[in-house]
Amino acid sequence: MTLVLDRFYPIVDSAAWVRRLVPLGVTLIQLRIKDESDAATGHQVREAKACCARYGAQLIVNDHWELAMAEGCDFVHLGQGDLDDADLPALRRAGIRLGVSTHDHAELDRALSADPDYIALGPIYPTTLKAMPWAPQGLGRVAEWKRAIGARPLVAIGGLTVDRAAGVLAAGADSAAVVTDVLRHPDPEDQTRRWIDATRALA
Fold it and tell me: Domains of the chain: which residue ranges?
């Protein structure tokens, strides 16, 4: 059965953010934790998973596939480098769904060889989140990627704002992944509500 993702897909770096945003109506959220011990990360995954279960949201764990398996999570998102070490057959046996990041055609081919449940493409627009060796992809690339992957969901990421949501989704993205526009907004809760309203109006 084809996976259906919510059109709004916030990415956060702590369980505290999950607890702030999920009660507002977020139904899909990624927990992306860097530079913490396995014990600390495991604690955050458990907290985030409990919150998502309480509100009926889907939690996607970035990178930490072994922790996701141990905690019985439903989703893992892997970057290209993480594909080198991840035990994909074990993830499949555990029933964990997989998302993979892509930035160019070679990465798309490699991602598709892993038969993921969704593909992410970025950065769509210039982003200040981190230094990127790739130029902004643009809406034309979104449409190209969607043609290439067919019914598999496409997640767009990088420089997305509420005002850009309609264009990205119209170009072929099934979901808009958002980091800075929520986490660095002066009022993250209000901005989350704006994203939810904007993307659900486009559904």
Answer: 8-198
**Beta strand extents in the chain (DSSP E only):** 8-12, 28-31, 58-62, 75-78, 97-102, 118-121, 154-157, 175-178
Strands 8-12 and 175-178: parallel
User: Which residues are designated catalytic?
Assistant: 32, 101, 130
71 DSSP assignment: T
10 Å Cβ neighbour count for 17?
A: 19
CATH of domain 8-198: 3.20.20.70
CA distances from 54 to 9, 51, 106 (A): 18, 5, 39
Cα(91)–Cα(72) distance, rounded to whole angstroms? Answer: 11
Q: Tell me the average confidence (pLDDT) per consecutive run of 10 residues in the chain, 203 residues long.
A: 90 98 98 94 98 98 96 96 95 97 97 97 83 80 97 96 97 97 98 97 80
The single-letter code of the amino acid at 199 is T
Amino acid at 62: N
